[in-house]
């Protein structure tokens, strides 16, 4: 029997002692719309990015919605010369989740977690393993449960 992404998130959170609240996320055309629909500041929506190391392994980077990953900062922290964002099919294979639903909770492989320091001490929303859902968690509990490395790994979003 196949377990849904949502169930994998809930089960893994329970095993790790993390309280998680799964909520339906209204459709949104922007970060600001998504945040408003969830009653959050955009910085409380945390993107879980799958990042590929040069050796073929992966890491998770937890990035506030109103910021972008700083490749230079993350490379220095991970201790490698090269990092990249894998194709969505590779990310699915590495985590068991489709892009837009990715979370370290319930991932098919427990990759190391690197989190931006700006999420510490906050209640955040992140992917919940399925489209149309968000998982609300206490960031500190999540970071502790994963033994996350916490540092400044982001830059301000550049206008498009």
UniProtKB/TrEMBL annotation:
One of its GO terms (molecular function) is aminoacyl-tRNA deacylase activity. InterPro entries: YbaK/aa-tRNA-synt-asso_dom_sf, YbaK/aa-tRNA-synth-assoc-dom. Residues 26-144 form the YbaK/aminoacyl-tRNA synthetase-associated domain. Gene3D superfamilies: YbaK/aminoacyl-tRNA synthetase-associated domain (3.90.960.10). This is Cys-tRNA(Pro) deacylase.
């Amino acid at each position: 029997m196949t377990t849904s992404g949502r169930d994998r998130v809930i089960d893994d959170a329970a095993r790790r002692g993390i309280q998680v609240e799964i909520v339906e996320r209204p459709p949104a055309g922007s970060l600001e719309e998504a945040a408003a629909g969830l009653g959050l500041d955009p910085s409380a929506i945390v993107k879980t990015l799958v990042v590929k190391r040069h050796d073929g392994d992966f890491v998770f980077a937890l990035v506030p919605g109103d910021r972008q990953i700083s490749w230079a900062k993350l490379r220095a922290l991970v201790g490698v010369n090269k990092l990249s964002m894998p194709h969505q099919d590779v990310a699915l294979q590495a985590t068991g989740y489709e892009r837009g639903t990715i979370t370290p909770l319930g991932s098919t492989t427990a990759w190391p977690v690197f989190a931006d320091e700006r999420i510490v001490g906050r209640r955040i929303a992140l992917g919940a393993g399925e489209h149309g859902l968000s998982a609300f968690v206490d960031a500190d509990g999540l970071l502790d449960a994963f033994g996350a490395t916490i540092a400044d790994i982001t830059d301000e979003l550049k206008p498009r």
